[in-house]
Write the structure tokens for this entry.
Amino acid sequence: MSRRLARVRPKPPVAVFAANSTATSLYVHVPFCVVKCGYCDFTSYVVEDTSVHDMFLRALDAELSSTTLPESPTTIFIGGGTPSHLAPHRLEELLKILGRHVDVSGCVEVSMEANPESIDEEKAAIAMRYGVSRFSMGVQSFDPSRLHFLDRAHTGQRAREAFLELRRAGAANASIDLIFGLPGQTVAQWEGDLEIALEMQPDHLSCYSLTYEPGTRLHRDLRLGRVVPVEEEADRAMFLRTRELLAGAGYHAYEISNFAGRGGPCRHNDHYWLQGDYVGVGPGASGHRNGVRHTNLKPIDAWGRAALDGLPPVATAETLTPKQRVGEALWLGIRRRDGVDVAAIERRVGCPVESLLGKVFAAHVANGWIERDGTWLRLTSAGLLVADVVGSDYLLPADIAS
Ligand SMILES: C[S@@+](CC[C@H](N)C(=O)[O-])C[C@H]1O[C@@H](n2cnc3c(N)ncnc32)[C@H](O)[C@@H]1O
Ligand code: SF4
């Protein structure tokens, strides 16, 4: 069928709800980058004036002060943007601020995103001193022309060196992000990237198929016919080859785009996919607690002014209906290798899932896309290839989502 492969990136998902009401995670958004990559729609700014970084830290402190936080979040994810872009003393300050507001040592995992052009042994050591236990390095590719196409600010060689610097600093859990399905890319080229990544022995890998996000330069180029997306068959072949190669190397595909090695799954993202609550701080960050979803102001000035004035720097807040919560729980959960437990969703939301979506489940079973095991739904091998279609079929239309 004419649909591209499923791909969800690890930005905080639109809505989740508590599997266990006491378990809440914390997402901290650091919105600065060296360059704005043409494919990226995450909130990020290239600013020359580093006083903006200082304002960000003061505003973050203020936002955390006025936010009801879990004393000890289950997990913390410091993402971006590029947290490693902060100068060493600012990175230290960021982590000190966090430590003043929550018990970092009680978290099961504290992840930080790091880019090859800005992470080094010193910053990694600072991060670990303040409790960071896992690094996620955005590499995307090792090939000069693909790095150029993606506007990356580093070379493949620098990515390898930076990963070694993480190791030298003592990082025992380090992941690598890669992107496949670039225009004109062949399966053999993609295998080349995967093989280099495997030589680096990461503890986890995330492999995403390139998406054309509205509002990005890449999306505009697509509309103007300046880029031609890779053939669907090639994209699919790369997706399948990824699973084959990484399984052979001992990585477990616990989610469509995520592969756990020695470091196990990313506990923070798994918390999202398992519908745990989370608080999001920083410009553009979103959070969800007890059925209410909020999204922060994106512009750094507006976000910072509100936070420093002691106001919630929130752009939108929305109370989700039970049907929306059901749809989103299924949409997220179906992406996990273990699948999603319909009975658990019914218990949490108090909504009869079968009577809402039983016919959709039956059609998916008939198509061979999902299998049912008691109250669990799981994607089949055929379903993996159309996971976006399967998941979006569970998102109940707004007119009945009440
Ligand atoms: C928002 S980035 C932040 C991490 C870091 N700043 C970086 O540059 O990698 C998180 C990850 O999302 C993935 N990503 C972002 N935009 C994407 C897109 N349009 N298509 C596929 N993957 C994307 C990349 O793999 C990236 O590593
Ligand atoms: S991909 Fe990473 S470095 Fe590039 S703009 Fe997005 S957040 Fe910044």
About this structure: The chain is about 40% helix and 20% strand. The chain has two domains: 24-273, 322-394. The two ends are 32 Å apart (CA to CA). The longest strand covers residues 24-30.
